[in-house]
Amino acid sequence: MSKFPWKTMLAGLAIVGTTVYAFAQMPADMSDTMAEMHRQMTQGRQNGTRQGGPIVGPHGGSPVDVQAHHAGRFPVSPGQDAFGAIQEVVQILEADPATDWSKVNIGALREHLIDMNEVTLHAAVTERMTDTSIEIAITGEGRTRDAIKRMVPAHVHELESLGWKAGTADMPDGVTLIVMANDAVPLAKLKALGFIGIMVQGGHHQPHHLMMAKGQFVH
Ligand SMILES: [Cu+2]
User: Fold this and answer.
1) Range of the domain at 170
2) Within this chain, do residues 141 and 194 fall inside the same structural domain, yes or no?
3) What does pTM read for this prediction?
4) Ligand 1 mean position to 114 CA, how many Å?
5) C-beta of residue 94 within 8 angstroms of C-beta of residue 45
6) Quick check: is 50 in a domain?
7) Rounded to the nearest whole angstrom, what is the distance from the C-alpha of residue 136 to the centroid of ligand 1?
8) Are 133 and 196 in a shared domain?
9) pLDDT less than 70: residues of the chain
10) Are both 122 and 35 inside the same structural domain?
11) How far from each other are the two terminal CA atoms of the chain, in whole angstroms?
12) Distance 112 CA to ligand 1 centre (A)
């Protein structure tokens, strides 16, 4: 173990490194081992947070994760993106002594992430360019339709805060989104971005997800 350069890393990381090494040597029952790994990794992160500043950031990819990845002993991916987003938020809340668990609502975050999944992957999208704008019909059925009606009109406020001119019109099976071209976002760029490229504008989802989980934000 002393041959590894990461031995020289922060004390908090070295603790995790030791843990990783110990489990690599362990021939115990795999399910027990995995449960213990989860517990130890969580402890390691919490130790790291206390000793060396915040390790779990809003965009993931903590030094601990990178370290384990480079050591080749742990996969970093949680296996499912919404699962990983929720795990990250739960870890942030657990690392914050000010977290008010009487208000925390992880289920609300899960519902929003299901909406994001529906809008991103399952909505039907028809785009039409005019001389001054892009007009996008976003439609679906059931949960997909509900998600479109929750997320797309809400996103207009984010676009407006970025200085874009945009609006929505309700339809029985979805929403029509109209976004005007401007100097910063000419028609060619609007066309290239299309529906989902427009939906990802702004960085509001990450902080909003944490607020949702804290019970402070309703989309
Ligand atoms: Cu979101």
Assistant:
1) 106-213
2) yes
3) 0.68
4) 9
5) no
6) yes
7) 20
8) yes
9) 1-71, 218-219
10) no
11) 49
12) 6
29 CA to centre of ligand 1 in angstroms? 38
Angle at 26 between CA 66 and CA 2, to 5 degrees: 55
Burial class (CB in 10 A: 0-12, 13-18, 19+), 213: buried
What pLDDT score does 67 carry?
A: 61
AA identity, residue 4: F
CATH code of the domain in which 203 resides:
3.30.70
- H or E stretch including 145? helix 143-161
Determine the distance separating the centroid of ligand 1 and the alpha carbon of 128, expressed in angstroms: 26
Count of the separate structural domains present in the chain:
2
User: Are 111 and 62 in the same domain?
Assistant: no
- Amino acid in position 185: V
Q: Residue 56's CB: how many other CB atoms inside 10 A?
A: 23
Q: Give the strand order in the sheet containing 133-139.
A: 124-129, 133-139, 174-180, 166-171
Confidence at residue 184, expressed as pLDDT on a 0 to 100 scale:
87
Q: Token digits for 154? A: 């809400």
Q: What six digits make up the tokens of 208?
A: 């909003």
Partners of 175 in the β-ladder: 138, 170
Dig out the tokens for 193 from the structure: 């971005």
Q: What is the pLDDT of residues 113-168, one digit of tens each?
A: 999 999 999 999 999 999 999 999 999 999 999 999 999 999 999 999 999 999 99
Contact 172, 186 (CB under 8 A): no
Residue 30's pLDDT is 44
**Residues surrounding ion ligand 1 at CB below 5 Å:** 116, 205
Structural domain ending residue among the three candidates 58, 76, 94: 76
- End position of a domain, from candidates 76, 95, 125: 76
Tell whether 201 and 159 lie within a shared domain. yes
